[in-house]
Amino acid sequence: MTTVIKVGGARAVDPAGALSDIATLDDDGEDVAVVHGGSTAVDDTLERLGIEPEYVETPSGVVGRFTDAETMEVFEMVFGHLNTQLVAGLQSLDVDAVGLNGVDGKLLYGPRKSAVRVVEDGKKKIKRGDHSGTIKQVNGDLLESLLRDGYVPVAAPPMAGADEGREARSASDSASGDEPGAEIVPVNTDADRSAAAISGELGGTLVLLTDVEGVYEDPDDPESLIEAVETSEEWTALEDAAEGFMGRKIMAAEEALDAGADEVVIADANADEPILSALDGGGTHLYQEALQ
């Protein structure tokens, strides 16, 4: 079983504790894969370049980044830098880490969405020129090969995006040369959902590290932490309690569990031994049976 760790990209998240725990798990012979975010760093870089980040709301009420061509270039630059820094940090702890993005080996693959439905001033509209995508396939063989050889994969967006209207093919089909493929372009995709897709492919436990202790029944009351979600009624209450960015993490958790992960933990990246404490019962634990 593999533990997939998603290290958040918020300003308030210090990855040092997570890297130390990853080194401990690796030293104990555990299979570990890492996925990281970095949207805050993207926003900071856009600001330094004088580019205003644009966020849009979908008809379902989810707020996300609109990634035009210029923003996509910044996204690639920033995530490449962050990936290298995390890999170097793990290498400093004697972990054989290997940095990947979703384009490498079509690790994360699916259609590009060049147009998205948004809500502006209460009206539904189609906004074109987006560089984002929906993950349909994960190259699990690539990850499992690295894990078998003792490496810790450190993965991140962007994903390998195929033009709309062209059916995504598996990595094995692509490698065989059976048919010409769609043009592949790097496109933005959510890091939590990337971690969910990878965890669903590999099975085991997904730990989503963030800047709070977990999901609170009352977001204003830190004593109201939801510790476990094991029934459909508890899942409904969890969704009702999740606000803002936490709603996206619950969406990712559901995708992971639906795809084959055994458990998802949402926990504090800044806690002492954040990953080890999460695996030992800290944070909010979500189980497959809650979706049945």
UniProtKB/TrEMBL annotation:
Keyword line: Amino-acid biosynthesis, Arginine biosynthesis, ATP-binding, Cytoplasm, Kinase, Lysine biosynthesis, Nucleotide-binding, Transferase
Molecular-function GO term, any one: ATP binding
Residue numbers marked as site, Transition state stabilizer: K6, K249
Residues at which substrate binds: R65, N188
Cellular localisation: Cytoplasm
GO cellular component: a single term: cytoplasm
Residue ranges constituting the Aspartate/glutamate/uridylate kinase domain according to the UniProt record: 1-268
Reaction(s) catalysed (UniProt annotation): [amino-group carrier protein]-C-terminal-N-(1,4-dicarboxybutan-1-yl)-L-glutamine + ATP = [amino-group carrier protein]-C-terminal-N-(1-carboxy-5-phosphooxy-5-oxopentan-1-yl)-L-glutamine + ADP; [amino-group carrier protein]-C-terminal-gamma-(L-glutamyl)-L-glutamate + ATP = [amino-group carrier protein]-C-terminal-gamma-(5-phospho-L-glutamyl)-L-glutamate + ADP
Region (Disordered): 155-189
EC number, UniProt record: 2.7.2.17, 2.7.2.19
Biological-process GO terms, alphabetical: L-arginine biosynthetic process via ornithine; lysine biosynthetic process via aminoadipic acid
Main location: cytoplasm
Keyword NAD tagged: no
Record SUPFAM superfamilies: Carbamate kinase-like
Listed InterPro entries: AceGlu_kinase-like_sf, AcgluKinase_fam, Asp/Glu/Uridylate_kinase, LysZ
Pathway: Amino-acid biosynthesis; L-arginine biosynthesis; Amino-acid biosynthesis; L-lysine biosynthesis via AAA pathway; L-lysine from L-alpha-aminoadipate (Thermus route): step 2/5
Matching PANTHER family: N-ACETYLGLUTAMATE SYNTHASE, N-ACETYLGLUTAMATE SYNTHASE, MITOCHONDRIAL
Family per similarity comment: Belongs to the acetylglutamate kinase family. LysZ subfamily.
Function according to Swiss-Prot or TrEMBL: Involved in both the arginine and lysine biosynthetic pathways. Phosphorylates the LysW-bound precursors glutamate (for arginine biosynthesis), respectively alpha-aminoadipate (for lysine biosynthesis).
Protein name: Putative [LysW]-aminoadipate/[LysW]-glutamate kinase
Recorded name of the encoding gene: lysZ
